[in-house]
Write a structure and sequence with these properties.
about 210 residues; globular; binds S-adenosylmethionine
Amino acid sequence: MNPPKFDQDFWEELWAKTLRDHGDKVARRSPNAHLMLEAADLAPGRALDAGCGHGAETLWLAAHGWHVTAVDFSAAALAHGRSLAEAAGAEVAERIDWAERDLSHWTAEPRRYDLVVCLYVHVAGSVEEMVARMASGVAPGGTLLLVGHRPIDPATGAATAAANQVQVSVEAARAALDPRLWELMVAEERPRAVAGTGVDAVIRARRRS
Ligand SMILES: C[S@@+](CC[C@H](N)C(=O)[O-])C[C@H]1O[C@@H](n2cnc3c(N)ncnc32)[C@H](O)[C@@H]1O
């Protein structure tokens, strides 16, 4: 059987089914551990959550004072995120703009965001190009946080839940981020804090100017 294409139809169908069958469980999922760790010392400002899914991280950021642009190309995931935000109250909901966009070509306004987050997004084209495009949205002094689930568990060689997907790697991020412009604060593989297998590539970089 051919692996899925991980295109818009794939994600829309997956989100519609997941939210229909397990909507309550999804709504209770904790925000991403890497994000909570790496953003804890940042002063809130403008954030972009690129590939936000149903919005657990967007909601966490908004609850911590960030004004968030939450981008995904799954209408079902965005609708769920919006309803969770409304349930969380006006203060949180008003800090979030939900936007249906395709990240394979959508580009953020240059240097707009104090924090750009892109977690577990499969890239159809070049990873380095995607990293550079995400990085272009970061304001001077701002932070880029990228996390990719590696497709193979290095401990066992077994395929992980991200098998056949192309997500960000430490190598691709290093290649895309010019050290004259970016201070790499974290660029490493870490064990996954959630159920599953393998490691996550975690990249945190600060734009120098
Ligand atoms: C594995 S989920 C991760 C969601 C969320 N970032 C998280 O950490 O739970 C990948 C998300 O990226 C979205 N996505 C994948 N490719 C995309 C694209 N080209 N444009 C916009 N969203 C995309 C999917 O719809 C899905 O919500």
